Structure formats: C-alpha cells, structure tokens
What we know:
Number of domains: 1
Helix content: 10-25%
CATH topology: D-tyrosyl-trna(Tyr) Deacylase, Chain: A
Order of helices and strands: EEEHEEEHEE
Strand content: 35-45%
Number of helices: 2
Structural class: alpha/beta
Number of strands: 8
Amino acid sequence: MRLLVQRVKEASVEVDGEIVGAIGSGLLAFLGLHQSDNVNQIPWMVKKLCGLRIFRDENDKMNLSVQDVEGEILVVSQFTLYGDCSSGRRPSFVNALSGSEAEKLYDQFIKEVQETMGKVQTGKFGASMQVSLVNDGPVTLLVDV
C-alpha cells in the first residue's frame, strides 16, 4: 500500500465534467494498492495519513497534523503508483492490485479515514479523473506500508 500525500491549499477531482470531490486546505492523498496488500494494513496507513505532522505551527515548523489544523482530506485511487519503469519505456502495472479486490480495499480505506476525520472527499474508483490542486509548500511525501 502506497500513498502519495500532498499538502494543499485546495484540490478537486473531476469526472466527465463534474466535480466529484473537492477540499480546501488539507491533504490530497493518492492511494496505490499492491497485489500483496490486505485489509490489515489499512489502520496503520490511515493513522499515518491523519497524523502526519506536515502543517506549520506558530514557529513555522512542520509540527501539526491535518487533524490539528482541522483540515480536509481528498483520497484518489491511483494504480499507477505501482508502475514499474525499470525496464523499457512503457511502465508495467503487474504489481498493482486490480479489479474488485482493489476497490474493496479502497472503500475500506475511505471508511476508516472517514471514521478518523469525520468526513473525507474522494475521486471515483476506476474512472478517468482530472485532478486539480494547489500544492502548499510544496510538500509531497511518499508513504509505504
């Protein structure tokens, strides 16, 4: 399981010309699922996402979490986070979890983020999405479990 986390001033996801998820200040998290991932990894990853101390405190130090600043979270599924570019010029996605198993883990991840944060915005699993964001910092982190 892999998260690409960006601290944002705002972010949104559009599918077929319609905004399906949008946030103000908070975190945009792209979730990639590996074929060996399972539901037992989700609580650790959710705790890590919601507890990352990457927002500025009164001393301009990254010392506050999205919960501390009452920020928002937008989660977008992204199987390409497990794209392997080590051979040739076309990425291989054989390591990415696909289909209904990936959607089940994605849905469970969303559910647990919602339980922690009270709410969460999302993209649309499996859809072609256009993601817009204003990265704050910029701050972008890769979190693996």
